[in-house]
Amino acid sequence: MEWINSIIIWFNRAGLSDTMRTVCIAIAAIAAVIFSIWYGRKIGLSEVKIFIFLLIAYPLDFLLTELARIGSTYAATYHVLGIQTLVNAQLKTFVMIALVALLVAKIIRVPWRVTADLLAAANLLNYAICSIGCFFTGCCFGYPCVWGVYSPSEQTTVFPIQIINVAIMLVITWYLVYRTKSKNYVSDAKQFPIMLILFGTTRFVTDFFMNNEKLLLGMSTISFHCIFMSLVGVIAIFVIERKKKSEEKIA
Questions:
Q1: Are the C-beta atoms of residues 219 and 210 closer than 8 Å to each other?
Q2: Are 201 and 211 in contact (CB under 8 A)?
Q3: Which residues have C-beta within 8 Å of that of residue 116, sequence separation ≥ 6?
Q4: What pTM did the predictor assign?
Q5: What value does the CA radius of gyration of the chain take, rounded to a whole number of Å?
Q6: Alpha carbon 187 to chain centroid distance?
Q7: d(C-alpha 127, C-alpha 166), whole Å
């Protein structure tokens, strides 16, 4: 970890921590766009529909995310169950995926499952790269740890939970793409629910290693949100399977 800490400390002393986080966010956005173009072609979208998707989906996602952030900040002034943390910038993006995917699907006239599949993987990739910026500012840190990563905000070394979270998200993104490839890039409508389950359960576990405010039994507001995400994913898959069986009986 020494070489990582040396890099983080150097940028911190140079006053470039926030700049590096911004750079990571910019790289994440570019990666998401490139991924969407590549993935969109694989799942059969025309160049025109991919262009419209990029023109509408990400700006709309950003707008809804900002509205949620403003709402959560307002609610936080009244100390409403820590709701500001519950809808933080990282996780509320995934809640918005279903709505954004539905609106874009209607506009470019493709099945909702197609845009949901694309956004599920692209947003997770974006989140993973953005999270690298956490190293430079010291946010999303773990508990103090002698052999950990240096956190500028805590002025000490902490458990490298950011590394674990980034690795997990990249693995889930790879799995979603691999799963689609194994089905010849034909959507079965389960990609988005699977992402919710995998991300929700893994993030629930890693949250116990994060030094944030706990509400109940070592769980934070993020933990409860992850439980909600996972349940939504499970219910969605159950509904999809029932619908598939009903259609098979009718056929």
A1: no
A2: no
A3: 97, 98, 101, 102, 105, 189, 191, 192
A4: 0.84
A5: 19
A6: 20
A7: 8
Beta-strand relationship, 156-158 and 144-151:
antiparallel
pLDDT in tens, 158-187: 888 888 889 999 999 999 999 999 989 888
CA proximity to 123, closest of 209, 45, 56, 29? 29
Q: How far apart are CA 58 and CA 81, in angstroms?
A: 29
Q: How far apart are CA 169 and CA 104, in angstroms?
A: 24
| Cα 36 to Cα 170, 177, 233, distances in angstroms | 15, 12, 22
Give SS3 for 249: helix
Residues in the chain: 251
How far is 13 from 148, CA to CA, in rounded Å?
19
Beta strands in the chain, from DSSP E residues, in sequence order: 144-151, 156-158
Quote the tokens at residue 54.
Answer: 């990029």
Q: Which tens digit of pLDDT belongs to each residue from 106-135?
A: 888 988 888 888 888 998 898 899 888 888
pLDDT above 50: residue 89: no
Written as six digits, the tokens of 101 are 């995917």
For the chain, the first-to-last Cα distance in angstroms comes to 59
